[in-house]
Write a structure and sequence with these properties.
- It is a single chain.
- The protein is of the alpha+beta class.
- It has 14 helices and 27 strands.
- The protein has a six-stranded mixed beta sheet with strand order 22-23-19-18-26-27, with helices on both faces. A five-stranded mixed beta sheet has the order 3-2-1-5-17, sandwiched between helices. Strands 4-7 form a two-stranded antiparallel sheet.
Length: about 475
């Protein structure tokens, strides 16, 4: 029997049909996910009702073809929140992980997020759902009638099951902030001291659990974070592999049975601020380093080249380009630039970092000889890889023998794969499926519905 799996990304919504017996993807459907026109420059918002409408249409179409499914699994973009009324319907946009409301000045020159850091035992950064919520609390921005907050994955599960109350899996809850990793719950004492309305918080789930059923009886599983789902769908050897995913943002992830052994905890405080420890499955943890501007840095460069074409009179520049995209041409240039000397040095912090949103990128080491499009493209790719390696270096282990790469930025760019392998000094292998997060959500759904005794056992079903 097949599992229907949904992944709600920042730029793309994906649904795939996963064969539980062969571990293969039978069919994939995709749709774009777009941002709403921002009321303020610092906002990055999406429409939860439009996301549900898109997914509901895809599900209805796939049901006609496959009749029914063993279960529906869901993974979703992390950190973001939306508000619900008492009937479980959205009364706000989805405030995504890119929303910078909490980076605005609040008290004594501190931002809302940095002010909260004094109350939280862990990291609180702009874009974290509870930092965004705190901004709303202090600016009267919580919508009238709001009773609960939740993630977009929780909301889709609720709508599919016609439920009025959200249930948030700890893989998503940890991304909201103020999460007690050891207790697998929100740190209620710290939240109360910071002045939060605790009634807004959703109930949590720590295990592989079915949330409810659709009206026609299909089990819908609790939604999980896309970082953990991607790791589950991509990595087979937990001890030897470091997962590198490059999408809109980028992450390095590695598994740990004890975060203290990974060298990132000192008591309850993070010893390496740029890293997060997140709940994984089966009592394991992920150590994660995240960049805000991974694949987006490459997109910035593509837009720059488009502007140059426009300046030269080629308005779209698309007549001779495959799919109207400059990426294939850039990838070819990168192969030449990656091997050239006198490298252009690019710092890709164009959107800042979680710790310091005000930081900006730079382009340096430019000479009259090396300032070419090929070297510029290669410099951007080297910058993306260097930022990820800097996150990995504090927690590198001798047991790590390979990189498992995922995300279209890696799959479609041979030069980037070569650069990552050289930077990390490890061979790079691609994840078995292109839609790693949706595949991981499918495996999680198989564990939820009893096809496997736990998530770790389900992992070996992926082909």
């Amino acid at each position: 029997m097949a599992v229907l799996s949904l992944d709600i990304g920042t730029t793309k919504i994906c649904a795939l049909v996963f064969d539980e017996y062969t571990g293969t993807v039978i069919e994939t459907r995709e749709a774009g996910n777009v941002f709403l026109a921002p009321p303020h420059p610092w906002n990055r918002q999406q429409d939860p009702e439009e996301i549900f409408r898109i997914l509901d249409g895809i599900i209805s179409d796939l049901k006609k073809k496959y009749k029914t499914f063993r279960a529906i699994g869901i993974s979703c973009q992390m950190h973001g929140i939306l508000y619900l009324n008492g009937a479980g319907r959205a009364v706000s946009p989805l405030y995504t992980w890119q929303d910078q409301s909490a980076a605005l000045p609040y008290s004594g020159g501190e931002s809302y997020a940095s002010y909260l850091a004094a109350f939280s035992p862990g990291r609180v950064a702009p874009g974290f759902g509870l930092a965004t919520c705190f901004y709303h609390l202090k600016t009267n921005g919580i919508p009238s009638g709001a009773k609960k907050l939740c993630t977009i994955g929780d909301y889709i599960a609720m709508r599919l099951c016609r439920s009025s109350l959200p249930l948030t899996h700890i893989t998503n809850a940890a991304g909201l902030g103020f999460f007690d990793l050891r207790g697998a719950c929100f740190d209620m004492g710290s939240l109360e001291r910071a002045g939060f309305d605790l009634s807004l918080l959703p109930d949590l789930s720590a295990g592989a659990r079915v949330f409810g059923e659709t009206p026609d009886g299909i089990p819908v599983c609790v939604a999980v974070g896309d970082n953990q789902a991607s790791f589950l769908g991509a990595v087979r050897d937990l001890k030897e592999s470091v997962a590198v995913n490059i999408g809109t943002g980028s992450q390095i992830s590695l598994v740990s049975s004890d975060p203290a052994r990974a060298g990132v905890f000192k008591g309850r405080a993070l010893e390496v601020p740029a890293l997060e420890v997140r709940p994984y499955f089966d009592d394991l943890f992920l150590v994660v380093g995240a960049s805000l501007c991974g694949g987006r840095a490459y997109a910035i460069l593509e837009t720059f080249f488009r502007d140059v074409l426009s300046m030269a009179g080629f308005v779209s520049g698309a007549a001779s380009l495959s799919d109207g995209s400059l990426y294939p041409a850039m990838n070819e240039l990168a192969l030449a630039g990656a091997d050239s000397g006198g490298q252009i040095l690019v710092d890709t912090l164009f959107a800042g970092s979680r710790e310091d949103p005000s930081r900006r990128g730079s382009i340096g080491n430019i000479s009259e000889d090396n300032f070419t499009p090929a070297n510029l493209v290669a410099g951007f790719l080297n910058g993306i890889a260097a930022e990820l390696y800097a996150l990995y270096e504090p927690v590198r282990e001798k047991a790590h023998k390979k990189i498992t790469g995922s995300g279209n930025a890696i799959r479609k760019n041979e030069a980037l794969r070569r650069i990552l392998s050289e930077k990390f000094n490890m061979p790079l292998e691609l994840a078995p499926h292109e839609e790693e997060a949706a595949c991981g959500a499918a495996l999680f759904a198989l564990a939820c519905t009893g096809a496997f005794k736990n998530v770790s056992e389900a992992r070996y079903q992926a082909r």
